[in-house]
Amino acid sequence: MKIVHITNCLRGGGIQNFLLSLLPEQASKNNKVLLIVIEKYDYEYCNHLEQLLSQNSITVIRLNKLKSNKFSLIKTIIKCRSIVGKINPDIVNTHGEMSHVYGALSVMGKNIKQIITIHNAPEVWPFSAKFLCGKKPLIFCSNAAYNLKQQTCTEATTISNGINDKIVRTNNLHDLRKELNLNNSDKIVVLVGSMRPQKNYSFLKEIADEIKDQSIHFCICGGSYGAGYINTDEFESYKNIHCLGLRSDVSAIENSADLFLSCSKFEGLPIAVLEAYFNGIPCVLSPIVQHINISNVYNVYIPKDFHAKSFIDCIYKALSNTESHDEILSKRKLQIEQYSIKNTAIKYIEFYNKILNG
């Protein structure tokens, strides 16, 4: 099968890290897999992800769309349509709101099936996506994403996200205590994801004010990309909250950290959490349905509500565990098998075939 995936960017995030696992797995099953990236690269991390994909037999094609440039928008839509026409894939699978529009315009008038993956809960579409994609078959990344959907769909399935632990995990260690000049006894709490409001990083200030423990350091691995993102300046007065920007060494950081924390208000099926599971790090996850549904895993804690004290109670419980990450991972193995990318990739191909043969 010939499969083209389209995504908005490779800046880093749940969608990008999911594709980093899914595409090589699809390619390993004798499928020809290509990825079209819409936006022009603006971070070195984009090159890092492209290199990893290329090393795993994925052809990456850049459209180099410029932000807030209508001419570039039209030019790259035409370019995308031309590329898809030349490749003539069996399936175009799109990931992210803008990519759905590009995909729909690229297959219009052609005998090529487009399938849309919904990665958020809910995923809010602009009018253009609603108009062009309203009758497209959908894959929801979790039951929560399906239950909170805003789309009306005639053909849909739920396929839980998965990860390839061989790609995600590393044996390397990156100790933030050394990078940040902290004491060896200080505790490192890692948060992962771009500085979007849904990640609720501002809530960290309430936790820091309440916990009053300067030996616990909250380290955010995620970029802030301007309008619509949380401004890192609001954390300047907090000496134990560190905004590290977009990082390509998250697994190495988690290997030497003490705890993974998510304060998110909503998610699809969070890839960063699955990566933390496979890295064997203790986890405290916000009390949202998307986390609760995947929380039956060893050394994972869910606060009873969104009050800082509830989070702090769970943080101290998780930090009291003295097991190594390897020991924790060994106890999680059977519990997290369902999040292996192998299962996800099989279900994706089965759904592709269903649509092609329907």
From TrEMBL:
Signal peptide: none annotated. GO terms for molecular function: glycosyltransferase activity. Pfam families: Glyco_transf_4, Glycos_transf_1. InterPro entries: Glyco_trans_1, Glyco_trans_4-like_N, Glycosyltransferase_grp1. Residues 13-147 form the Glycosyltransferase subfamily 4-like N-terminal domain. Residues 176-327 form the Glycosyl transferase family domain. CDD domains: GT4_PimA-like (cd03801). It comes from the Bacteria. SUPFAM superfamilies: UDP-Glycosyltransferase/glycogen phosphorylase. This is Glycosyltransferase. It comes from Xylanibacter rarus. The lineage of its organism: Bacteria, Pseudomonadati, Bacteroidota, Bacteroidia, Bacteroidales.
